[in-house]
Amino acid sequence: xxxxxxxxxxxxxxxxxxxxxxxxxxxxxxxxxxxxxxxxxxxxxxxxxxxxxxxxxxxxxxxxxxxxxxxxxxxxxxxxxxxxxxxxxxxxxxxxxxxxxxxxxxxxxxxxxxxxxxx
Length: 119
Hints:
The chain is an alpha/beta fold. The protein has a single domain, classed as 2,3-Dihydroxybiphenyl 1,2-Dioxygenase, domain 1. It has 3 helices and 8 strands. The strands form 2 sheets. The chain has a 4-stranded mixed beta sheet with strand order 1-4-3-2, covered by helices on one side. It has a 4-stranded mixed beta sheet with strand order 5-8-7-6. It holds the Pfam family YycE-like_C.
């Protein structure tokens, strides 16, 4: 039951427009739903989505969203995320070794891991 559940991650954002640009133009997610102060983005058919709500973000350095890509992180993907308002940051020795970390326009960190997820 729990293993089949859909996961929603919700975060506040100062600017829905900036968040949309980062997550869609930068990472390639689709807009799944939009209202005045709410934006949901994700990949069609994925078992998760990201909900962004108008508000005041308070990210810490350990507020990570990690995507396990099971392969190299392309330079074009990183460049696209930076062009869409992200900023490449260090996340410490472990994540710097196993991926690339990008802070979104609100300062929340997205880790693109070169590793595969294994249980």
